[in-house]
Amino acid sequence: MENYTMEGRTYRYYGQEAPLYPFGYGLSYTTFHYRDLVLSPPVLPICANLSVSVVLENTGQRDGEEVVQLYLRWEQSSVPVPRWQLVAFRRVAVPAGQETKLSFQVVAEQRAVWAQDWHLEPGTFTLFAGGQQPAQKTRVPSEVLSTQFTVTGTARPLHGC
After folding, report:
1. φ/ψ (deg, to 5) at 129
2. By the 8 A CB rule, do 112 and 53 touch?
3. What is the DSSP string of the chain?
4. Which of 28-32, 67-71, 109-113, 134-138 is predicted with the least confidence, judged by mean pLDDT?
5. Cis peptide before 141, with omega less than 30 degrees from 0?
6. What average pLDDT score do residues 9-16 get?
7. What is the mean predicted confidence (pLDDT) over 81-101?
8. Which domains does the chain have, with CATH numbers?
9. For the Fibronectin type III-like domain, which residue ranges apply (predicted)?
10. What angle do CA 143, 75, 50 make, to 5 degrees?
């Protein structure tokens, strides 16, 4: 085998074709609402980690569990990258009518790209938080929030951080 590209070979690189049952898909007896997606800092140095918080509210009449998912998208990269990449997820139980604030860390390694070795690149990134994948065609009663952040500095090997 001489062609090691992942394009067209895994769900992350299928292009516009959506999987029949994407990660996190399932039925629930309640509904959830996401709000207050906050990134800290919104501009970070190349080797820094990103803190993320989001509020999840159970807007239904029953207690329920939600799989909160964070995805990262590179807006421009020097090499092919996935449409978006899952960087964190957590199953959370939320009583009916209650809300909870969740905190996550997106570490620098999760922004690394492969080009003969793992390296970090500056640029603009989009972070998605919600109960499903971004732009998911098989809809579930949950939305996806998104916001952008910027990484500054010069490209460097991951082991140089």
Report:
1. -135, 130
2. no
3. ------TTTSGGG-TTPPPSS-TT----SS-EEEEEEEEESSEEETT--EEEEEEEEE-SSS-EEEEEEEEEEESS-SS---S-EEEEEEEEEE-TT-EEEEEEEE-GGGG-EESSSEEE--EEEEEEEESS-TT-SS--S--EEEEEEEEES--EEGGG-
4. 134-138
5. no
6. 58
7. 94
8. 32-160 (2.60.40.10)
9. 66-133
10. 70
Angstrom distance (rounded) from CA 120 to CA 90: 26
What six digits make up the tokens of 145? 């929030």
How many residues are listed for the chain in this entry?
161
Smallest Cα–Cα separation from 156: which of 28, 45, 15? 45
User: What are 96's two structure tokens?
Assistant: 């009916």
pLDDT computed for residue 14 by the predictor: 56
Tell me the residue type at 25. Answer: Y
The arithmetic mean of pLDDT across residues 26-55, rounded, is 93
pLDDT at residue 16 is higher than 80: no
